[in-house]
Amino acid sequence: MSNIPFQTIDWSKIEKTEHKGETGTSFWQTLQFDGLRIRLVTYAAGYLADHWCQKGHIVYCLEGEFVSELKNGEAFSLTKGMSYIVSDDLSSHRSISKNGVKLLIIDGDFLKYNEHQ
């Protein structure tokens, strides 16, 4: 990962890209650095991810509520002010949002699975 100089982020100026779910839609605003991705993600009401994700993330709920469902059947409800963190390849998870949610999601090389820990 390279060094990142001090900078402010005006999210209102970051382009939104649309991503269809199995149901509903998500909108991503993405900053990509070498080995680091920072996203402001909004799930519309009725959103269900179209895949099981195995990437690691740090997820912080800014507004609303969503469920992070694990492929093993566990489900975790997160509301404003809550977070979850997981390394790459340690869970298969997907997001569900009944009424819509806004998230800050950070992922990158620092979350790669290390079997020696």
Question: How would you explain this protein's 3D organization?
Answer:
- The chain is an all-beta fold and about 120 residues long.
- It has a single domain (about 15-110), classed as Jelly Rolls (Sandwich).
- The protein is built from no helices and nine strands.
- The model has no long low-confidence stretch (mean pLDDT about 95).
Structurally, the number of domains stands at 1
In round numbers, the mean pLDDT is 93
In one word, what is the shape? globular
In the CATH hierarchy, what is the class?
A: Mainly Beta
Biggest sheet features: 9 strands, antiparallel
Please count the beta strands (DSSP E, at least 2 residues each).
9
What proportion strand? over 45%
Topology summary:
Layout: E1 16-20, E2 25-33, E3 36-43, E4 47-48, E5 57-70, E6 75-79, E7 83-86, E8 93-97, E9 101-108
Antiparallel strand pairs: 1-2, 2-3, 3-9, 4-8, 5-6, 5-7, 5-8, 5-9
